[in-house]
Amino acid sequence: MGKSVKKNIHRIAVIGAGHGGLAMAGHLAIMGHQVNLYNRSEERLWGVKSSGTIEVTGEIHGFGKIYLATTNMKEAIEGVELIMVVVPAYAHKWLAEQMAPHLVDGQIVVLHPGRTFGAIEFKQVLQRMKVKADVIIAEAQTFIYASRATGPSQVHIFRIKHSIPVASIRAHLIPYVIDKLRQFYPQFVPGDNVFKTSFENIGSVFHPALCVLNAGWIEHDVDFQFYHEGATISVTKVLERIDMERVKVAEALGIRAISARQWLYMAYSVEGNTLYEAMKKNVGYRGILAPKSLKVRYVEEDIPCSLVPIASVGKMLKVDTPAINSVIYLGSALNECDYWSNGRTVENLGIAGMSLRDLRLLAIGEK
């Protein structure tokens, strides 16, 4: 038994030591793999460096021994086969720049998740920096864990999602990526292409609007369950409008994106006649409290890196997105910034003016 476990040990880098990064690093280490944990700031690593482990509770229980906790990117990804990026999407561009000089042939970078066009943005950075290494860039449709850090080296996993599509920039390599990931996670399934995973980013539907429409309660510092109590009947009607616009923009690209209700069934095995009913039935959301501030990734990440690219592509392809535009505007006003200019617009991604053919080639071809 000991020999077979040792034989299957893999070297993996987890990039990011937040709620998600601790969950993934801890779980992979509990599985017996050699895990390097990278974080940009030293403070987030103090607890892990001190204990040498991550304590995981919830759906997974145990102590995962971390091989290396570091702020040095070269050390973090040297000699690893899989680079699991678990950071807010607005950090993807910066991380791609940090990784670029150190990537080598055969490595797989997986964004957990890519939000919308994460893999494309990451690949564009590597091309701009003239990276010669043959690296596969992939993205997950959503994050596999519902998790929260409960201490400096402790994390609680509320739920592990059932089925998460993953796609790579070169679509013919998707089966290879899935084979690699399934050595650790049977939950990963092939996504058709990175447009499909990008437009089935359901965080774009749930997170920003729930924050904007509950801004008063969030700023009043009231404890309430984000999904179960924040998503009232009226609020979920707005979420359904946002969802409909997301699906329409995807259709303009020739992509059939699943609805938020279908996603809840696929990821959590819950269903309902309305989005409100389905969200209420989802036990995976139970106990997840609303953020204490609007300066939170549900706004600062999901608006510029999820809603903005959907609306921007919609504008380029002449698909109206009034509900999405409203949330972008209101979120920008609430946080006194311009998420549109700073976000993943077609201009910022370098895809403005591309024909539908060129866009499809970028997603599925050799470019």
Please, could you describe this protein's structure?
This protein has 367 residues and is α/β, with parallel strands linked by helices. The protein has two domains: 2-195, 3-Layer(aba) Sandwich (Rossmann fold); 203-364, Orthogonal Bundle (N-(1-d-carboxylethyl)-l-norvaline Dehydrogenase, domain 2). The chain has helices at 2-7, 19-30, 46-51, 73-77, 92-99, 118-128, 174-181, 194-199, 203-213, 215-219, 233-252, 260-268, 275-281, 297-300, 302-316, 322-334, 339-342, 346-349, 356-364; strands spanning 11-15, 34-38, 53-58, 62-65, 68-70, 82-85, 108-111, 136-140, 145-151, 154-160, 164-168, 188-190. Helix 5 (92-99) links the parallel strand 6 (82-85) and strand 7. Helix 15 runs antiparallel to helix 16. The relative contact order is 0.11. Mean pLDDT is 93; it is low at 1-6.
